[in-house]
Fold each of these.
Amino acid sequence: MSVRTSAPPWLETQRRGPQSPRLTRCGTELIAEFGPAAVTMRDVAQRAGVGKGTVFRCVGSRAGLMLALLDHSEQQLQSAVNAGPPPLGPGDPVERLVAFGRAKLDLIAELGDILAA
């Protein structure tokens, strides 16, 4: 069994692309408006003002787009845990654990459609 020591290729590409923040924002907006099943790469490209090829170069595929959006949300949660204000950020360990559990459940509820896509 091999252990992956680096990020998957779709994530490395997504992080490197200069359009990534805009694509993440536009993908998130479109999913909030129409749901993940209705969002296409063309929709994201059009909203972001880039060519469809740019979206494919940044995220690789529609699945890569969904994974990039999930990764972005997870990074925001991690930042809040690492450096955010209490109770989620540094503070009482029990309060942090409870706050983390609630934040994770909220994230799953918010992103459930993307997880299913």
Amino acid sequence: MFNYYRDFGTLGVTIIPLLGGIGINSLYFSFRKNPTLSKITFFGLFLFGITFSFFNSPFGFLWYVYTLIITYLVFRYISKQKNQEK
């Protein structure tokens, strides 16, 4: 949380976790309605980030962003191949 405080002040400590919680909560309820492998994978990645943000927030690290981007591209490629087979 100190990184958010250092960059954005008190408003950053309030707003950024609130928006992150709303986003992850909407992903969770979307997964509950229509479970897919991609949704559970992204929920697991975000849950990892939430769990370890107690020590140091991984959301700002480039390796975490790369992991999210590569996972998204892999699932998009797989779904595109699956749609072409139909």
Amino acid sequence: MATGGYTETVNLIAPEGRWTLHLPHAAATVTTVRGSATGLPVTTSDPVRIEDPFRLQLQAFHHAVTSGNRPIVDGSDATADLDLAEQIVAVAARHDGDAAPARSS
């Protein structure tokens, strides 16, 4: 566990397996659990390098502008991300019995 005693955990579950992302204050890890031929789960953990997202975003934007290449994330990608986030909030709100917030356009 990271110093300070705080770790955020995100679990993704799919038919192919289960992935757990551990986000402590310091280094992060991804733990993958998959089935094996014996039926027993196989667990692997891999370190994740966390970069400053704003610095990476600025570098990617600079590269797109100076090279003329398509940005890694363009407007349609961002819109799709917002749509997905709204769907997640709506499902969570139904689960909690709360009304989902409306998207302001």
Amino acid sequence: MFQMRHAELLFCKRGLLFAGLVGLCTGILGCNGSLFGKRLSEAECHELLDRYTNKMIDQSTSSIRPAEREERIMQARRLSQLDPAFAECASRVSREAFECAMKSGNADQMERCLM
């Protein structure tokens, strides 16, 4: 039970880190997707979030029921709707960063792509 709560806390912290990385890219670095090719669509931003969420789940737990995985993905989507940084994903995350993140094998690699 403690391990599951610890994993959930870690998952939430890492989810906030992902949003923060998108915010870093949009605010400090000024990554503008239009400078690096076609801007991301809203669907691609959600695809990026879903992939990151899945990678975080894979890293934080050895086994999870499909229904629980889906619930965590839906929770991440709901939280992203409240995050102003995520709202800017389509206009601020470069195509290059997106493609790098989508090819990444784990959440840490994805984060490096978005920095």
